[in-house]
Structure formats: structure tokens, C-alpha cells
């Protein structure tokens, strides 16, 4: 039996990505971000989300894609996984979709320059749409920040 | 499982009982003749046994059961406490504690208690053989036949207490057919009963009831001063109880029971015997129980009455209350800003009123999280006892101010540092007995543990009358370990030398002992206390003793801070570390070996540019002819921090930066939310001064 997976769909550099809906707390429009010194460049800072301070990551920067100016469509997706709460800045987020688990394939070696370990699978939707499912544990791995911090020093 | 909802209650109460067991055992060790204390201990152990059995923790139950047997002999004057019994009982308490700890950590609470049980059994047997005369009255603890026939001892107890004005009852309780936890309900009934009087006999036996080996009803003979109606009321208030059948036992029915049992002569004999043993016991118990109760604040739970009424609250609920309240605080600041812009009188008045109310509310919310330091202090008497014993020293621990309150978060953290300091005091401070005698000091060393409020801080002091810090020896060690250079060493003041013992990897002990000197030094203590926003100082007189003084903030969640601006960014500095604010002219800043310094009140202090430190995107102090500065302090070191502009002083709510950023953040220790909803970072002055 194929299971149904509900995912939030967002875009990043003209590609479509998905995060399981139960990992997403809310989706916010861009708000003022307070810079935190001595953090990797993809960490944009922290925001006030109704009284809670939440770190914000530019997902383009996190994946080594070119960072761009934020637009009307830019969104912050607040995710929580492994008791970490983090906001992702994405180009746009506008869809919730059901994905059948039998349509998900293992990640290819490289997708659009993003390391395969950040991807848990690729879902085929209809004839031509491809949805990249994120492996949140890897994306939020703190080891990488620590390495980056040491590299920067 | 249904058990889960009882679990947290079980854990809380077991901890309470274990604590009270520990405390009272220590008290009993001081006054071994005091039967009143034994009674309290017995009751605690008994309740603990009942609770564990109903929750299905067999090992806990069996160990407490054996302890109870020993205690029962003691309280009935058939056994005298001695060192061996105390040691065994303390060992049992340790075992119980680790089992409860295991349960808290999600374990099964299983543990091999066989050896301890054997030891307890041996105590019970051994002394029984010695006291031949006691055999006759040993009945109450022995398993009697399952019927509800009273033996002579119980009969005489009943008639005795009726004569002395107590009421005797025969109570039958029936639980409902659909009752899920019969044993738990029965336990609750027994709890009610034991709070108001004494159960003389139960059928089935208490043990069987605890193991749920009864059908739907059980019955007890019971002595109490409480009248029938209120007793019935209290028992029926336990839920899932179908019926309570209460019969007053009068002299006549008692006689009938006696008659069925045997000759009345024998009974009177026993009665006299019991009266003889009971009378001195009770007369000792009352005054003795009163005096220690008056001395230590928490009276035995059964005495109740004037004790403050409290409820247990989940700490998470308090935290969320705190969070919600801090949002309110942020809105208040925002409203105040708006009101000052709008300048409408009635709005300003309303906002001012709201400010006052929320200030009161803030006080109350903060107080809700305040816990007496007692909860930390009360584990120390036991620790000092064990330490002194293993070091072969005599040490008295005097606790003052255990009722002083501190924020829960501080309480949780302060335990470990205190353990270290007290160990240090007993191990390194207090001299061995022979040495003390030689010095003309009393054999018994004294360690004072004090807590008190002073302003916005709480002080905790640990002072002993031991040998004091040996300055030359400390210096020698410090130089040997490379903590200070020989030149520096000459310039140090006494207090500075004392502070050296907090340096990393420093131990004044000549040899590594069991208790300390295993590399975990006082440096850990110091860093922990500093992390809590407090600091620790040492004063010492050679030959007369040492005093550690810890200063702690009342709460960690709301602090007074100075808000400053740096171009477009805002930062907050904790007010507690700011010495002074002022401005400095470019020309006053000089360089020394490439480091920027200024002359500040006759001393040279380093100048730190905050803009450079945080890599500000739109401000540099080099361009300014005159710069605002903050003088901050870390211990006795000071530094001037250059900032763009002062915004003002304000109460801020500390918020963590989120786990993702936790760790190596350098100068930033947290964040706060400003009136306009923006996040400002809090600078940790301790990280600025190296």
C-alpha cells in the first residue's frame, strides 16, 4: 500500500522542493531580521516570531546557490525537527500537495548543484514535475555550522 | 496505561518521603532515644511502601517493608538503634533513592536489594533472640491468620485507647465493581485513615491489600479521635468507593470479642504490660516531637494545620506563563512609546496604570518561580555526615536561611557547585580530630551554610573553622603549575592569592583523596557560578577557617539592561556589569604595544570597539572625534567599550537564541525583543574581557 505524504511545496532557483507538512510550523512573509555576528553567511540572523527568537537561514546560501534579493514572493518557512526550530528563506511557497510514497525515488547523485545528502528523495508528479524532498536532519545538521565557523576563523 | 497519570504523583511524593526519611534519620542519629522521630520515619517508610506496591515496584516495596519491620521494633521499644542499624538504614535509603531515580529516568526501578533485605532481616532476628520477653507482643508485625479475630495485644490497644478517650471503629469499605486500581483506592483509604488515627488491624492484611489480593471489600479496626460522620465523609470522598460501613466499637462489643478470645485475666495482664510500655513512650514522644519541629521549619505532614496551602504546578506551565507575560511586557514598552508620541492625557494615564499593574504582575510571576534553597540544602546534612565518617572527622553542619528563595532555574544549577564547595570545606578545611585537639580547637569542626537576601541578590556562604588557606603553599603550587609567574606572585594581595585556588587544574590537597582532588577542581565551580551571572569570593584566616561567599542574581529571566545603538543595530548590555557610562575623546585613546588603552580614574584600561567586534555593517568609531563609551567590569578587570549612542536603561526579557545557534557565539549571550518587535542581541561583557 502506497502511503500518502502531505508536503509543503516551495521554490528555490526555479526548482520545486517539498518538506513534510508535520515538520512545518508556519509560513511567514519577510520580517526584519536581526543580524547575529560571527555566524556563517547563510545564517541571516534571528527574528521575533510572536515572542520566540528564531534563527533564520537563507536556504539558497545553505545549498551554495547564488543568493538573490528578497522579493514580494519571498517567504520564511518555520520548520521544527530534532527539537531545533529554524526559519528557511525561500523564493516562494504556495502549495500543499499529496505525494504517494511509491512515486518517490532515491535521490540522484546531484540535483542542481545541491549535495545529495540534503535530499531524501525525488517525487514525480504528473508527467513533467519533479519535487525534491528535503532531508531536514542533514540540512539542519549543526556539525556543518561548527565546521564553517572554524573555517572562518 | 492508567498508571501513567499516577506516575508523576508517585515520583513527587516518593522524593518528598525520601527527603523526610533522610532528614529524620539524621535527627534520630542525634537523638536516638526520641521515639517521636521513629514514628515519623516509620510512617514515611510505610507510605512509601504502600505507594511502591500499588505502582508495582516490587523491589522498592520489599526493601521498605523490611525497613519498616526494623523500625517497628524500634518504635515499640523492642530494639535500640545503634551504629550498625543506622548504617544499614542509610544504605537502604541510598538504594531507595537510586531506584526512584531509575524510575524517574524511565527505568523499571528494579535493583538487587537482596543483600540489604538480608541485613535488615538479620537485625530483626538478632535482637529478637536477645529480648525474650518481647516475643509475646510481637504479634502486630507478624502475619496473623486471615480472619478478623483480634489478638490480645490488639484488643488491649483498643480498650486502652477507648479508656483514654479515643474512639474505636470497625470499618468496612467496599470498592466499586468497575474500579480499575483497587489497591490504589485502598491505599488512598488507608492514607486517610492513617492521617487521622491508627489502624489496629486490617482484613485482609495491609500487605495483601497492597498486592491487590482482595475481592471488593476490606475491613479494619481503627482508633481515632475523629467523629464518625467526618470519617465517613473523608473516606467516601475517595473516588470509586461504593460503600463505607462504619461501626463504633464500644466497651461491650469489645468485651464480647475478648470473651471469644480467652480468659479475661490474661487480657488485663497484657493491658497493664502494654500500658507500661505505651505510657513512657507517648510521654517521651510528645515533648520531643515538638522541640525539633519548632527548630526546623517543615513540620511533619501529619501535624498540618498552619502549614501554607500549596499546589503542585508543572514547571512547563510556569514557563509558558512566563513567556506569555514577557510578551505582555514587550507590548507594554511599545504602548508606553506610542503614548508618549500621541500625547493624549487619558491614554497616558491608562498606560501608566497598566505599567503599574504589570509591574506587580511581574513580581508575582517571578515569585511563582521562586523556590526555597532548602530543596538544595537539605541533601547536605546527609552528605556531610557521610563525608565526615569516611574521613574520620567530626563535623557539624549548621544551616541558616534555608527558607531564602531563589528562581527555580538558579536552584537547579547551584547544587553541583555547592556540593564541591562543601566537600572542599570538609575535606581540605576541617582538620582531623587529633590535629584539632592539638590546636586547642573543639573536636567537632563546624561548617556553616548560610543563605540570605541582600538587595537584588542572594548570597550563599560556606564557612568552616578549619585550617584556612596557606598563602605560601598556594603561591608555591600556583607557580609550580604555571598559573602565575614568580614575579606576579609577589604583587598579589591576600584575596588575590585566595582566588588562585579557583584557577584551572589547581588543587591544594597534598594527596588525592576519595572525595576531591580528582581533577574536578574549583575552577568548575567558578565557571558555573559565573555562567549563572553570579560570582564567588574567598576570605580566609590561616588557622581559623575559610569562607566562600557566592553572590547570585534573584532571577535569570528578566534583567535590567542598557540599550545602545550601533548604526542601524541595537544591542543590550546587562546593567549588572556596567560600572559607568561616559564619552571619550579620540585624542584620549592611546596605543600601547598596539593595543588601544585609555586612562580611566588613575588606571589604564583597554579600549574595545564594539563595532569592530561585531563587524557592524554601517558604523565605525574611528571616524568619530568623540565616542560614547561604557565601562564594564569582569571581576576586578575593567574595559571601556566604544559604542555609537545610548538609547537608555530598560528591563528586558532574556530569550535564548535558539538551539541552532547555541554554542560558540562569542560576544553574544542571548537576545531580547524590543518594544518595536525587533530582536536585539545581548552582549556578554564577560566574553569581552579576556
TrEMBL record, chain A:
- The yes or no answer to whether the keyword Cytoplasm is present is yes
Coiled-coil residues: none
Q: Which UniProt keywords apply?
A: Chemotaxis, Cytoplasm
GO CC aspect terms: cytosol
Q: Where is the CheW-like domain?
A: 4-145
Is the keyword Cytoplasm in the record? yes
What SMART domains does the entry give?
A: CheW
Q: Name one Pfam family in it.
A: CheW
Where does it live in the cell?
Answer: Cytoplasm
- A GO biological-process term: signal transduction
Question: Main localization of the protein?
Answer: cytoplasm
Please give the InterPro entries that the UniProt record associates with this protein: CheW (IPR039315), CheW-like_dom_sf (IPR036061), CheW-lke_dom (IPR002545)
Its protein name is Chemotaxis protein CheW
Which species does this protein come from?
Cohnella herbarum
UniProtKB/TrEMBL annotation, chain B:
Q: Residue ranges of region Disordered?
A: 281-308
In terms of InterPro entries, this protein maps to: Bact_Chemotaxis_CheA (IPR051315), CheA-like_dim (IPR004105), CheA-like_homodim_sf (IPR037006), CheA-like_P2_sf (IPR037052), CheA_P2-bd (IPR010808), CheW-like_dom_sf (IPR036061), CheW-lke_dom (IPR002545), CheY-binding_CheA (IPR035891)
Molecular function terms in GO for this entry? ATP binding; phosphorelay sensor kinase activity
> What Enzyme Commission number(s) apply to this enzyme?
2.7.13.3
Residue stretches making up the CheW-like domain: 558-690
Q: Where is the Histidine kinase domain?
A: 306-556
A single Gene Ontology biological process assigned to it is: chemotaxis
Q: Where is the HPt domain?
A: 1-103
Single GO cellular component annotation?
cytoplasm
Superkingdom assignment: Bacteria
List, alphabetically, the Gene3D superfamilies matched: Histidine kinase CheA-like, homodimeric domain, Histidine kinase CheA-like, P2 response regulator-binding domain, Histidine kinase-like ATPase, C-terminal domain, HPT domain, SH3 Domains
Which residues are annotated as modified residue Phosphohistidine in the UniProt record? 46
Catalyzed reaction equations: ATP + protein L-histidine = ADP + protein N-phospho-L-histidine
Which controlled-vocabulary keywords does the entry list? ATP-binding, Chemotaxis, Kinase, Nucleotide-binding, Phosphoprotein, Transferase, Two-component regulatory system
Q: What is this protein called?
A: Chemotaxis protein CheA
